[in-house]
User: Fold this.
Amino acid sequence: MSGDRRRERVLSIVSAIVVTLVSLAALEIVLRIADFRELRETLSELTLGVDWDVDLGWAPKVDMPTALKRIFDAYRGQVAEARGLVE
Assistant:
């Protein structure tokens, strides 16, 4: 009886491993077919809008990280007041 129980346990473990491997293989195939290239190649949020704009006819003089730093530096003294708005 102990041998049957052990065999069932081994078969259960092996079947779980096989199902997991088959699922991972199927997911790999689906992801390779889907080809999310446009998601990988899009610009990051920090670089959006920092190039020459044909419609507007101008380009920003500072890059986004510099602009954000200047904004945060300008409002650094008002952090306590802003915290009161959230709480």
The chain has two domains: 1-42, 44-87. Residues 2-34 form the longest helix (33 residues).
